[in-house]
Amino acid sequence: MRAVIYCRVSTKDQVQNLSLPTQEKACIEYCHRHGYDVDRVFVEQGESAKTADRTKLKELLSFCRQNKGRIHAVIVYSLSRFAREKYDHHVLRAQLSTLQVTLRSATEPIDDSSAGKLMEGIIASMAQFDNDVRSERTVAGMKARLERGDWPFPPPLGFVAAKDATGAKITILDSQRAPLVAQAFELYSTGLYTKQQVLEIVRGSGLTGRSGRRLSPQTFSQLLRKPIYVGVLEVPKWDVRQPSNAQALVSREVFDRVQALLDGKQPMTAPRQRNNPDFPLRNFVRCGRCDRPLTASWSTGRNSRYAYYRCQNRACKSVNVRREDMERLFVDFLGQLQPKSEYLRLFGEIIIDVWKQKQEQAAVLHEAALRHVRELQERKQRLVEAFVYKREIDRVTYQEQLDKLNEEIALSEINERDTRIDELDVQAAVSHGEFLLINAPRLWMESSLEQKQRLQDVFFPRGVQFEDGAYRTAETSMIFLELEEISPQKEGLVALPGIEPGFED
């Protein structure tokens, strides 16, 4: 009789103590007493028994399946080490039974007798009961902390966990992120910026997620909704709303304005101002000194009205330019980006060549994927014939192999769809791009407001700055970067001096 041993601890801390060696020793001694030869030991480190998504458990089940008839028992230290949920226990137990493998506990009296099965059911239920009690105690402790004004969950962005003089856990402001979170609330509460604009501003100032990763729009949207920033702890599922002991990051007035804007109860001024056809560059161009987006408006003189773009930062005010001059300079700036027509034509030819190569590669990959799907389907057909007509295999083997083949076929069909070649008139797309680049100044002047804004975003993904009567940008469209990087060896038409005239990066 051969057996495998399964040991598990649920936390990383337990990995360091004697729990695993104790479990393994007791299981080995059990095997010696009952005449089992230990074939293999599976050790699960720091994974919960609440779920079957455990690495070593999966390996154990696979090992038993591959050695069906050779492995007779799985030995565990206790049933709680095997599963915490009663349903999970019986599902795993049934899976072992189909492999003709029984389950034994080194510390509990279970076997295949009526009394042993009853005891196993009782112990499995007790394991779930113990787990439920632990969960209830945990929730009760968290609710108690909430009622005391402490946040029991991981601290929201802008806060960090700490301990007070008595050693109790508390939540305090994060000196690095808290000012940036407060700035985000302040900016959005003005109604002058969209959520995306505010997110880009605070990202640029250094705001990241807790792990240092890039802050996502979804996380930022959730951040603006959390009452903890105004000093209120709220958990709707527990019907808890409690003043927080932690310092508030924003005022009630700012927080309420943000909620009203998010709920649509207060109109946003940013879209209306930004989409004013009189000022297509408003909020797109930024001040070169303070980096704040420029605003624009009409000023009334004695006998007429004048349109101006200006810096909205009262402490700066370095930009105050008439609309005609501002837009004329922008058109000139667009003209500076124009590449030579021969240079652009060469770039188009390279794009078409690369596209053809990718089409050829994609065709090869797609054909290979199709062949693999056909081969799997043929294997499935042969399997069915071997079982239904020739009776060459038993039902269990047939079902195992059929499940594997169905899984492989599903994955292969997904891969085949992914390799399909997109239909695209690349020549027409390149011609349109060439026309757009060569005629950018004229197109911008003749376009509608929406078209102008689209062109601005295409050519200058990060916007532009204006200072001392001149535009500059930190990043132009990828097309210009690629044009600059074409090597002279690939060019057979003209020398490659670059984009003329030069412009500031």
Question: What do these coordinates show?
Answer:
The chain is of the alpha/beta class and 505 residues long. It is built from 18 helices and 14 strands. The chain has helices spanning 12-16, 19-34, 55-66, 79-82, 86-98, 114-147, 178-189, 195-204, 217-223, 252-263, 270-274, 323-336, 341-388, 395-418, 426-438, 440-446, 449-459, 478-485, and strands at residues 2-9, 37-45, 73-76, 102-105, 159-163, 169-173, 232-235, 240-243, 285-287, 294-300, 305-311, 320-322, 464-467, 470-472. The strands form 5 sheets. Strands 2-1-3-4 form a 4-stranded parallel sheet, with helices on both faces. A 3-stranded mixed sheet has the order 9-13-14, covered by helices on one side. Strands 10-11-12 form a 3-stranded antiparallel sheet. Strand 11 and strand 12 form a beta hairpin. Helix 7 packs antiparallel against helix 8.
